[in-house]
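testing teh design pipeline on a random one, pls ignore if ur not involved
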C-alpha cells in the first residue's frame, strides 16, 4: 500500500476531515457534504484480478472525498435514497461513516448498525455499532424495512445463509441494497478455494479477504429475492458526483414493486454494458 491509498486509510481511521475551505475548488461535487472539488483520494486495488476482470467497485480509482471521506458508492446510494425516501427500521451492516451520517439525519429512519468485527473497527464505524453476524442475525423475523449491506457478501463463506437471514429479518414489503464487486467478464462467480493463501485470493478474486468474485450469475444465486438494477437517468450526474457509470444500485425485495423515480431508471445488464 503506497501513496494516496495509505494516506486515505489513515484519514479514515482517525476520521480526519480536511475543512472544505482548504480543499481546491473544482467542477465536481460530493453530494453528501456538499464540497465542490476535482481533487479526490484514491481507493481500491490494482492487481491481476482487478485488471483482468475489470472489477466494478474494486479497481483503483480517485473517488474518496477529502472532507467527509465518502466513496463513489456512498454518494451513489445517497442519491438513490434521496429518490426513494426510505422510512422505518433500517439495518446497516458494516456501516460506512459518511452514509451513516446521512441516515442519522433522517428523522423517519430508526437505524441499527452492526458488524462482526467490532474491535479496532470502532475507529472506522463509530462506537454505537453492535456485534452482528450476517449469517446469524440476532433479530426477530420481519423487523426491518430496509437492510443495507455494501461489499459484505463477498467476505462471507456461507453466502446463502446470509441471503436467507436478510430475507428473514425483512418485513414482507421490505427491501435491501446489496452492493458487491463484480465483473461483466465473468458469467459464473469464482468461489475461492479454502486452501488459497491471501496472496492467491488477491490475485484471483481482487482482495486478500474476499472469498468470491461475483460474475453475472449473482442474479440467479440470490433467487430468493426479486432483484432490480438501477442506473442514473442523466449520465452527466456520474461526472458531476464522481460516480462509476457501470455500477448499478442493486435493490432486492420480497415482492416486486415498480416505482417511477426522479433520477434513476430500472435497467437490464445489457443496458449497463452499453455505458
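output:
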Amino acid at each position: 500500500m503506497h501513496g494516496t491509498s495509505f494516506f486515505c486509510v489513515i484519514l479514515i481511521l482517525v476520521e480526519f476531515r480536511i475543512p472544505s475551505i482548504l480543499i481546491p475548488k473544482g467542477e465536481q461535487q460530493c453530494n453528501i457534504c456538499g464540497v465542490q472539488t476535482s481533487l479526490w483520494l484514491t481507493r481500491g486495488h490494482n492487481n491481476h484480478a482487478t485488471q483482468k476482470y475489470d472489477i466494478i467497485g474494486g479497481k483503483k480509482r480517485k473517488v474518496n472525498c477529502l472532507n467527509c471521506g465518502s466513496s463513489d458508492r456512498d454518494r451513489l446510494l445517497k442519491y438513490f435514497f434521496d429518490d426513494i425516501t426510505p422510512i422505518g427500521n433500517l439495518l446497516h451492516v458494516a456501516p460506512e461513516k459518511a452514509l451513516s451520517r446521512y441516515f442519522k439525519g433522517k428523522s423517519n429512519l430508526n437505524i441499527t448498525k452492526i458488524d462482526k468485527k467490532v474491535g479496532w473497527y470502532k475507529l472506522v464505524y463509530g462506537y454505537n455499532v453492535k456485534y452482528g453476524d450476517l449469517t446469524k442475525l440476532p433479530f426477530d423475523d420481519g423487523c426491518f424495512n430496509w437492510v443495507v449491506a455494501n461489499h459484505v457478501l463477498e467476505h462471507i463463506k456461507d453466502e446463502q445463509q446470509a441471503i436467507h437471514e436478510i430475507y428473514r429479518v425483512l418485513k414482507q414489503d421490505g427491501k435491501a441494497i446489496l452492493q458487491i464487486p463484480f465483473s461483466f467478464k465473468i458469467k459464473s462467480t469464482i468461489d475461492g478455494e479454502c486452501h488459497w493463501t491471501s496472496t492467491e485470493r488477491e490475485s484471483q478474486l481482487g482482495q486478500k479477504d474476499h472469498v468470491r468474485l461475483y460474475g453475472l450469475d449473482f442474479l440467479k444465486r440470490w433467487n430468493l429475492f426479486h432483484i432490480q438494477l438501477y442506473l442514473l437517468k442523466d449520465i452527466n450526474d456520474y461526472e458531476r458526483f464522481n460516480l462509476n457509470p457501470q455500477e448499478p444500485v442493486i435493490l432486492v425485495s420480497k415482492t416486486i414493486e415498480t416505482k417511477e423515480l426522479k433520477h434513476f431508471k430500472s435497467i437490464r445488464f445489457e443496458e449497463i454494458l452499453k455505458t
